[in-house]
Write a structure and sequence with these properties.
mainly beta; ten-stranded mixed sheet
Length: about 160
């Protein structure tokens, strides 16, 4: 597990060495297969001192076969894991997931209240507008590197019904 994390971080260092983050990168095992793409990546702004943050995005698969995300990493954090949120007996719970499938011609949404990337132990204090570097690893070894902007969560509006 440690060797895999080191390899992912080494790949991140290479991909981000020039300061620019590609939206999708990596050497595909099957060059003719369309690459997955990342859209709308962002990290929720957390209160000062928070030891975990959440990243959200949409991963699109233009190809004809299912692709599987098996890991996440970030040089900006000590750890990153794929997570899902669910409600059990009225209690919101988060759990680690081993893989997230992206269907052919479809997408996998990582969004508040659902799937997300749990980023643990930030290496620096993050402010709104900062950029976080993230790397997803697929089941075939392909990687996707991208940058996610730190943003405030949208406030939920209270709806009143009746008179």
């Amino acid at each position: 597990m440690i060797a895999g994390r080191r390899a992912a971080l080494a790949a991140l260092a290479i991909l981000f060495a020039d300061g620019a983050a590609p939206s999708a990168a990596g050497d595909s095992a099957k060059p003719s297969r369309p690459a997955l793409t990342v859209a709308d990546p962002w990290v929720a702004l957390a209160p000062p001192g928070a030891r975990a943050h959440a990243a959200y995005l949409i991963v699109r698969n233009p190809g004809a076969e299912t692709r599987t995300i098996v890991a996440a990493a970030s040089p900006d954090y000590a750890g990153a894991r794929l997570h899902a949120t669910r409600i059990e007996n009225g209690v919101v719970k988060m759990r680690h997931v081993e893989r997230i499938e992206v269907p052919p011609g479809g997408a996998a949404a990582f969004e508040p209240g659902g799937r997300h990337i749990m980023l643990m132990s930030p290496g620096r204090v993050l402010a709104e507008g900062d950029s976080v570097r993230i790397l997803l690893t697929l089941g075939d070894g392909e990687t996707i590197a991208f940058a996610a902007e730190v943003k405030r969560r949208a406030r939920r509006r209270m709806h009143r019904h009746g008179s």
